[in-house]
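User: Second chain of the day. Same drill as before.
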Amino acid sequence: MIHIVFNEPDVAILQQAIELDETLAGEVLLVRDDYAVGPIKDIYTEEGIAARKNWWREVLTGGDLEGNLDKGIVDDNKLVTELIEKLNADAEEKVWIWAAQNKHDVSGYYWLMSQLKAFQGRIYILYLNNLPFINEKGNIFYPEWISHIQPKEMLKAKKLSRLITTSEFEVDPDEWTKLCNEEKQVRLLEGGKKLSQKEVDFYDTELKTYITVDWQKASKIIHNFLNKAKHTTGDMFLLWRLKQLLATDVYDVQGTVKNMKDFEVKKKAGVLFEQ
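Assistant: Same format as last time:
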């Protein structure tokens, strides 16, 4: 059995669950890219893969994770190639895809399963959609991320495992292709597995509201956004968008505009409304 998750914290939780239940025993693989943001046009072609890498290189330049892309830390295409090799080598091997109800996991699900159609009957999905769990305090909650679930509660989640149907292997790749062809860069989860898309500046309007007349570290602005905004995304994407906003000449900046702890931002005196 091969388990696939889409967030690094999910790996440890799933491994702990495996220790509690040997029927879950298997390798845990991590899809590292965040397919809820960025270009996905021609995502399975050399040109599309290169375009996405170049976009991420721009986003990460001057940020906390600059250089990670070129170090090969993120190489999901290699992961899928190796996964397909394992499935071809062992006709009994099965894949369990774990996804919670968030745009990151669902976008990753679409990207991955669209490449595994040849293995129908061996690909399972565990989609934790509106399933209640018990948290550490004994209260019922509906987890948005797999990593929020206690390992012992993951044993309940395994009951959701089901084969991805023939119909889903027909419909879901078509839905993903439709999204890819829209050429927008922000994906939101509407409910179930339904994704909608927005323009690249979707988060900018709310991000501006956390910039005040007082000096604040960029890290604090992003932290406040992540804790208060209805729709959130990765901090590196937000850092990139913040840097784009600084180019509008509405804000004062001090420090080196690089890592989020390296510079401070505030509204310029006399500016009443953001552009």
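The radius of gyration is 20 Å.

User: Great, on to the next one.
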